[in-house]
Amino acid sequence: MTETNALVLTEVRGRIGCITLNRARALNALSLEMVRELMAALLEWKDDPQVLAVALRGSSKEGVFGALCAGGDIRFLHQAGSTGNPQLEDFFTEEYALNHLIHHYPKPYIAFMDGIVMGGGMGISQGASARIVTERTKMAMPETAIGLFPDVGGGYFLSRCPGRAGEWLGLTGDMIGAGDAIALNLADGFIASEQLPALWETLITREFGDSAAVQQWIDGQLGTTEAHHAGRQSEIDRFFALPTVPAIVDALEADGSDWAQATAATLRKRSPLMLHVVLEQVRRAREMDLADDLRMERDMVRHCFYLRPGQSETVEGIRALAVDKDHAPRWNPARIEEVQEADWQAFFVSPWPAHAHPLAGLAD
Q1: Is 210 a catalytic residue?
Q2: What region holds the Enoyl-CoA hydratase/isomerase domain (predicted)?
């Protein structure tokens, strides 16, 4: 194993490539260095006949497990976006390439989605062949709260949730637990957190004949658990199938239910501009393969920082949440009703010709 002060610990145990995210104090938020270490390990094991499968877990202040990954390192994004640090571009290009590799990994990739799994944490786990959730799982794509959008393939995997759940999760950033994650096709099965250490140990010590045997065994360990939002699917579909963000918010505000009122209040706190962008993103992504979705998201994230110099919603959103912590972002435009069609449509114009796109080489 690499030295214990490393941010990503990698080793081969038995026939399993083991990855432990080791940045517990930052909830394993992904830095560029971590993305590079993950990519290097996965590429090395991809063609290694000794490695039959890969297992990914996070660590918490109490030890292993407890938190998978809270997302990308947003303090770095704020610093880089404020100062023109070119590593900002590298981070997104390499992170999205990593997400694509995980979705297409030729061996079982087992993600232990314990604790917080948000943003970039979803990016390194949604492509897994076994997505394991626990009673501690807190899953979300909360990017609209920081003036961003659900990237890392979020358009692809959210748009493939049942009905309009993808629009709901992408716009609100609402958090879900294990049962809802399974019901919404964002997880494959449940295991109680107390059973994780024993499961991990068995995985790395058990004799497996081939990769298929690993997948079959892990699938046999997965259970189910109660979903809480499943009963709201018809409501979610009714509101979030509406054609525009103003129409969705108007309908929610006109509805008398506590859920509708709370959902409308949540949307009113998010970046008005990015709500419009996300609605279009999810709907476009329904008709895209993963590579095309990631290319679209790479265009979008470039625009999040550079489309409006000095007026980045993302830099402002992170400032309010994580830097100054005043929780009072100054969104521009300030209200949902003030966003013009041209404002959000600009995010879907690629800044690169197709042959020069940073992710031109991705293929599904």
Answers
A1: no
A2: 16-348
